[in-house]
Every structure is written in C-alpha cells, then in structure tokens.
Amino acid sequence: MNLQESPTWLGSANLQVDSKGRLRHFLSIEGLNRRIITEILDTAESFALLPEQSVKKVPLLRGKTIANLFFEASTRTRTTFELAAKRLSADVLTINVPTSSATKGESLLDTLRNLEAMHIDMFVVRHAQSGAAHFIASHVAPHVSIVNGGDGRHAHPTQALLDMFTIRRHKPDFPALIVAIVGDVVHSRVARSQIQALSLLGVGEIRVVAPRTLLPSHIEDMGVRVFHNLQQGLKDVDVIMTLRLQRERMESAMLPSGLEFFQIYGLTPEKLAIAKPDALVMHPGPINRGVEMSSEVADGPQSVILQQVTHGIAVRMAVMSLCLGSRAYGRERLADEGLSVRGGDNRHGLRQTYSYSGWTSC
Ligand code: CP
C-alpha cells in the first residue's frame, strides 16, 4: 500500500463517526475533520491537569470495561492506554495475546466474539496487519467502540494526536510552522498519521527527509516537500519528528547499516543547529540511539520525547471518553457525571477545565 493511498477497505462509509458527526470509533486521522481533532486535543488539555490533583482519577467511564488487545509488541501505547482507562475509572483488561487462544488457531473474529460476550465496551487494538482495526470495527456490536493502537504500516492515530498535543503546547501557531519528518517513512504508520494530522491542523510546511529507499512513491501527493539531504531539510525548521528505523519491516537490504544511516540522517548536535534554535526534537519511541539520533540530542534541552509519552495519557483519555461518552461530553452529560465545565487557562482560546466535586468517591 502506498503511504498516500486510501486503503480500499476504508470503503465509502466512515465508521468512525455517528450520524451526528460524533466519534464512535477512533481508527485513523483520515476520515476525521479538524473540529473532531481539535475537540480531542482540547479535552486532553483538561485531562493533562489531573496529575496536579491529589486524586488522579475522574469517574467518566465508571462501569465501562475496556480491553487492550495487542497482537504486536508495545511499551508506551499499551501502558498509557491502560493508565488512561484507569484514570477514567474504567475496568481494564489487558489480553496477553502470546498466551491467549489466538496461538491455538482461534480466528481474530472468534477471539473478538468471545471477548464481546464478556460485555466489553471498548477494544484498543494493535495488530501487524494494516486494516485490522477497521475490520474489527465493522464486525462489533453497535455499542462497542474500537480504538486503533497501531495497524501495520497504515495508521497510529493516537500517536499522531499526542504529537500534535505536544507541538501545540510549545508552538501553538500551526500555520507558521515548518515541520520535518525524518527517517524511515515508508514503513511508518506514525508518519502517515502525522502528515494527515499536521495537514488537518493547517501546518505551514510539512517536509519529509529520507533516502529514496525509505520513502513511498508519490509521497508528494500528500502535500509534503521531499528532501534527501538532511542539512537542507532541516533549514529553518521548527519541529523535527524523527522516526524509528523499522528493520523488522524491511524486506530487503534497503540500507547498508544503521551506522551509515546515522552518519547521513542521524540527528547530532551539529545537524540540529541547522534548524531554528528553539526547534523541538520528537520521536515516537522506541529510540535506537546512535541510529536515529545521538544520546546528546535525545536527552538534550530541545528534546520533548518524554513529554510525548506523558501527553499520551491525556490524549488517550480524551479519545476513550469521547468515543464511549458519545457521545457528547456536553454540559448536561458532565453534570450527570458529577462534573462541571468552567473556563480555564485559555492559552489556545479553547481550553476547558473539568472540576469534579466527588474526587474521593472514584
Ligand atoms: N510509539 C509507540 O507506539 O511505542 P510502543 O510501540 O512502545 O507502543
């Protein structure tokens, strides 16, 4: 599948929103509009304040059950989804796929049907096959929501949104930004979702910087500028979004070695100095130090890599609460939940703050 193509399995119907345009499943950035993306980011702003409270939980999803169904390895996504669900007071199951009956030949749909029979309200799915989350969403009962935790090379939409959230906190004027995505674009579900999110939010210029072997054909059709030279690609850049070199997805020798990649495309303090002095350095993780960037850059003052991880909790709380809340967390619904909405610190002109009167009863 080319990075810029709409997969045929997306079909014409958008599974992600209900008839009123509200979020039902969260499968990809594609198919969503700026209003929904902004609503998720604004909701996440409220949840990001929770760690400052003595009780870090809200009862929005009390009584709901969420299952993490990860068919592929994950550290950040799985744990932040689990933490996010717990902070929303949901009951959480993490299915250990390598020890589940999937290894005995049970089909994906049969696994799903059995878990559905346990009255699960939401599945967070990571799968090596592109389209797995869409496939599951098209087969579940109407009350069940699916959230894509990364499918093949296709999409990693919550990663893209936590990246947008991180950028917005530092550099909220998106139309003024030049953003460079550097590295293994061709194998990256993250890059595809990032480009779609950056475009939807109106970023001034999106660049991709990579050797020809690590770029999909016709990538320009996604509205990006292509650079094969890192020094040229970093000039005047506000945000550098580096990507992991996905050796496990490489079918043939696309690169001589990680060391050679680092020498040409790896971010070092010298190369970083070509970008704007306050340029942000991002990486979705896991990092290959000495391949995608040096440790000086990864741990340096311009790195926001660990902030990305922290923001993943608030963004995933927002996605889950909006999907299951349907679902509208308008004032009436919040009042039902014992929450009120009041104007908060309004850095983006959009922010709301939830205050909850019953912290101790969570
Ligand atoms: N960024 C990311 O998806 O990391 P994990 O594979 O650890 O979840």
Keywords, please?
single chain, 362 residues, alpha/beta, Rossmann fold, 5-stranded parallel β-sheet, 4-stranded parallel β-sheet, 32% helix, binds phosphoric acid mono(formamide)ester
Overall form: globular
What is the CA–CA distance across the termini? 45 Å
Overall pLDDT, averaged? 87
SS element count, helices = 12
Helix share bin:
25-40%
Major β-sheet strand ordering:
7-6-5-8-9
Radius of gyration, whole Å: 20 Å
Q: How many beta-strand runs?
A: 11
H/E topology pattern: HEHEHEHEHEHEEHEHHEHHHEE
In CATH, what is the homologous superfamily of the largest domain?
Answer: Aspartate/ornithine carbamoyltransferase
Strand proportion, as a percent range, falls in 15-25%
Describe this structure in words.
The protein is α/β, with parallel strands linked by helices and 362 residues long. It folds into two domains: 8-155 and 311-361, Aspartate/ornithine carbamoyltransferase (Rossmann fold), CATH 3.40.50; 157-307, Rossmann fold. It has helices at residues 34-47, 76-87, 108-116, 132-137, 157-170, 189-200, 230-234, 258-265, 269-272, 295-298, 305-325, 331-336, and strands at residues 65-70, 91-96, 122-127, 145-151, 178-182, 205-209, 225-227, 239-242, 280-282, 339-343, 352-356. The strands form three sheets. The chain has a five-stranded parallel sheet. It has a four-stranded parallel sheet with strand order 2-1-3-4. The N and C termini lie far apart (45 Å). Phosphoric acid mono(formamide)ester binds at residues 74-77, 150, 159, 284-286.
